[in-house]
Structure formats: structure tokens, C-alpha cells
From TrEMBL:
Keywords: Kinase, Transferase. The keyword Kinase applies. Belongs to the carbohydrate kinase PfkB family. The keyword Cytoplasm does not apply. It comes from the Bacteria. GO terms for molecular function: kinase activity. This is Sugar/nucleoside kinase (Ribokinase family). SUPFAM superfamilies: Ribokinase-like.
Length: 331
């Protein structure tokens, strides 16, 4: 019996989420709808023109959101990451503790530096635009990998955003090697179309012969495979992963369980904020398949959870909401 359902590795960020209109992007030369890495000076310039008192703040990063989701549904998760010995770093440590996620962070031994921040700009069309300053997490390396936690997990979950730095890529490859040698299954998320567009060869190195489970949205799947249609992309994806999930936004999701394709129906919702929808889908799905649910049932759970996420602000459910979703799945 393994201690953890999922151990995740990823960029630890404090998400600062706020509403903007399209004119904001024009005025401040921000590319809408994508995640853009920025330096500290650029991020501080943007922070000076937002109302930080009304902004929502919580620990985040793609993999962090997913392992927190595992915990909220009743699973056991661990997170390998890096934050600094500053106010936001201490906030991150405390927020992870309150979320029930074990981690490698010792609040008494954090390094000096600046904790990474992600400005999440949400517009009325529910689209999210992110400007991210990685701070100390850009130094995430093999030193932050907890080998024992990976070996004691059913799944290792690797965040695609780590691919942007040589040390991050090295950590991804080493963590995957540790998992494979221990019989721990490996899941990878592409995280963002820009990651696939600019780092495809690096992803090829990380994936190697294959991974056990791959998460992608439609755009990422077609970018990675070089195909023009979802039908072609899904066939090509079989070469990279034994199982995979392709999320399709308002159209639900497509799952390959190793033998057949499963269509997951969307749940009707009033979308106001898409931030974290993919992270929630991955976390809920991983919870499902590590806790006795079939791929179809796990997909249904993930679809319910992500539809709930887009109907509210922020990438995280409240504990009663997670319980309610589980009760709907298992009436």
C-alpha cells in the first residue's frame, strides 16, 4: 500500500487574480489569452496599476492546483517545489498545509530570494491571461525532488511549465526515471500551448518511449503531433502515451484508456473564469483513477469538477463543493 496517490512536481507560484477589460491589454501591451513569462520589473509595473486589495491571492502553479484537488476529493498527495524566505513564500507554505498536501518545504530553511508570482487577468468572456515571474522557482532542480515520496506514490505528476529551464528539464527527467524504476506510474501535462510550441523537442526528451498518462487540450495535442485535426492527433498521441486525456473546453473531453476512446460529456455551466480548469480536470481525474474509479467515471468526475471551477473565480474548490461533486458521482 503506497502512502500517496500522487506526487507532483512543478513551479510554485502565488496566484494573484483580478478582473480586467480588453482595453487593459491594449493599454499595457499584454497578449491576451496566454501565459507569458516576464521579469520582475515588468510584473511590478503591472501590479502598480491593479487594485491588489480586491485581488484574490492563493498558492498555485499548475501542478500545485492539481495535487490540491486530489487532496480535496479525499486523496493523499505530495508536492515538490521551491519558494523563497519571504512573505509570499511563507504564505505558500501555510496555504499548502491548510490544503492537506505534504511537501518538501521546511519553513525554517527556506532560501533567500523572491517567491514566484502569477498575475491572473480575467476578462468578461471568462478567458484568463497570465503574466508570470518565476522568481526562485526558476531554480527548481533535482535538489527539490523527494525520491522517497515518488517511490511511495501511485502516480508522479509532472508539470509541463518546468520545461522552460535546463535545471527544470533535468528534474523532470530524473523524477520520471525514479518513478519508472520504482513502478510508480508517470503522468505529464503540457500545461500551455506555448510550452508545446517552443519546447517540443524538450518534451520529446522527457517523454522518451512513452508516459503512462498525458494531459493536453486540443490545441496542445495538435501542436505536439503536428496534425490539423483532432482525429489525426489522437491517433498520433498513442505513440507518446499509453493513456491520455484531451480536454475540449465547453465540448467536454476525450479519453484514451489504452484500448478505446471515451467521450466525456460537458456539464452545463455559466463560465466566468477558466483559470485552473485544466488543472482541476487533471487533479480530479488522477484522484479518480488512483481511488478505484474507471477511466470513464474519473472523466465524469473531472468534468463535473472543472465545470464548477469555471463558474467561479479562482482555480480551487471549497471542501463542501468537492464532497458535493463526489456525492453526485456516487449517489
Amino acid at each position: 500500500m503506497r502512502k500517496y496517490d500522487v506526487t507532483g512536481i512543478g513551479n510554485a507560484l502565488v496566484d494573484i487574480e483580478f478582473m480586467v477589460n480588453d482595453q487593459f491589454f491594449i493599454d499595457h501591451q499584454v497578449e491576451k489569452g496566454v501565459m507569458t513569462l516576464v521579469d520582475e520589473e515588468r510584473q511590478n509595473t503591472l501590479m502598480q496599476v491593479i487594485n491588489t486589495e480586491e485581488a484574490k491571492k492563493q498558492c498555485g502553479g499548475s501542478a500545485a492546483n492539481s495535487v490540491i484537488a486530489v487532496s480535496q476529493f479525499g486523496g493523499k498527495s505530495y508536492y515538490c517545489c521551491k519558494v523563497a524566505n519571504d512573505e509570499l513564500g511563507k504564505f505558500f507554505v501555510e496555504d499548502m498545509k491548510e490544503s492537506g498536501v505534504d511537501n518538501n518545504l521546511d519553513p525554517e530553511r527556506l532560501e533567500d530570494g523572491i517567491t514566484g508570482k502569477c498575475l491572473v487577468m480575467v476578462t468578461d468572456d471568462s478567458e484568463r491571461t497570465m503574466n508570470t515571474f518565476l522568481g526562485i522557482t526558476q531554480n527548481f532542480s533535482t535538489k527539490e525532488i523527494n525520491e522517497a515520496a515518488i517511490k511511495d506514490s501511485k502516480f508522479l505528476f509532472i508539470e509541463g511549465y518546468l520545461v522552460t529551464s535546463p535545471n527544470g528539464k533535468e528534474a523532470m527527467i530524473q523524477a520520471k526515471k525514479i518513478a519508472e524504476e520504482a513502478g510508480t506510474k508517470v503522468a505529464l501535462t503540457f500545461s500551455d500551448p506555448a510550452m508545446v510550441k517552443y519546447f517540443k523537442e524538450a518534451f520529446d526528451d522527457i517523454i522518451g518511449p512513452s508516459v503512462d498518462l498525458l494531459f493536453a487540450n486540443e490545441e496542445e495535442a495538435m501542436l505536439y503531433t503536428g496534425k490539423d485535426t483532432l482525429e489525426e492527433a489522437r491517433e498520433e498521441m498513442k505513440k507518446a502515451a499509453k493513456h491520455f486525456v484531451i480536454t475540449q473546453g465547453k465540448n467536454g473531453a476525450l479519453i484514451f484508456d489504452g484500448d478505446t476512446f471515451i467521450d466525456i460529456e460537458p456539464y452545463k455551466t455559466n463560465a466566468i473564469d477558466s483559470n485552473g480548469a485544466g488543472d482541476m480536470f487533471a487533479g480530479a481525474f488522477l484522484y479518480g483513477i488512483t481511488n478505484g474509479h474507471s477511466y470513464a467515471s474519473s472523466g465524469k468526475l473531472a468534468s463535473m469538477a472543472s465545470s464548477k471551477i469555471v463558474s467561479q473565480f479562482g482555480p480551487r474548490l471549497k471542501w463542501p463543493q468537492a464532497k458535493e461533486i463526489l456525492n453526485r458521482l456516487n449517489p
